[in-house]
Amino acid sequence: MKKGLVFCCVLLLAAGIIYLRKYPVPAVSDKVQEAKKVALTFDDGPHQKYTKLLLDGLRERNVKATFFLIGESIQGKEELVEQMKEDGHLIGNHTYTHVQLSKMGKDDACAEIWKTNTAIYDITEQIPCFIRPPFGEWNEELSCAVDMSVVLWDIDPQDWKYKDTKRVRDYVVKNVSDGDIILLHDVYKTSVEAALQIVDILTEEGYEFVTVEEIIFD
Ligand SMILES: [Zn+2]
Prior knowledge:
The protein has helices spanning 2-22, 28-31, 50-61, 78-86, 106-124, 159-162, 165-175, 189-204, 212-216; strands spanning 36-45, 66-69, 90-93, 130-131, 149-150, 180-185, 207-209. The protein is α/β, with parallel strands linked by helices and 218 residues long. The chain has a single domain (34-216), classed as TIM Barrel, CATH 3.20.20.370. Strands 1, 2, 3, 6 and 7 form a 5-stranded parallel β-sheet that branches. The protein has a two-stranded parallel ribbon with strand order 4-5. Bound molecules: zinc ion. Residues 43-44, 94, 98, 134 line the site of zinc ion.
């Protein structure tokens, strides 16, 4: 009788092991799947009208984004930069006059960057740590002079070229995946409209909007 019981137990155990090998129980970390993350980034602002429209739309949706500002565009729009900081957006540098850094001497290029950092610091009391070089052209020589992280992008709907809300929105929604950085420009009405529609659609699809800092350091 005892032998029979032991045999039954062994049999059940073996069956259990075979079952588990075939249908493994997912680990807890698999079950609680992390939200898909994506970063919206906006270049060339601030723009009095469209950056404001965008900031209000993002605030309504409680969404964080990253803004790469042109230094010379900041003057007179300090309130917009304040709102960016207040709402938890990340503020980065896009040079002072939107120059191609790879074609400049080191001193001039550094001045473009430092002037912009100063303009941002004067409002936010924080020195930006991230830079997006205009045209995606970084000057490697600057790495030793400028202690900033260069941020490029994964998804480029060429919003500046098409200025077409639907086209820009559809391109991003179709091509985006977890961990992507999306490039847009908050100086066009169509781009801002597309951005807010992208937020609504991707939120429905389970995406969480984070700053580039979170994407890069994840
Ligand atoms: Zn630009």
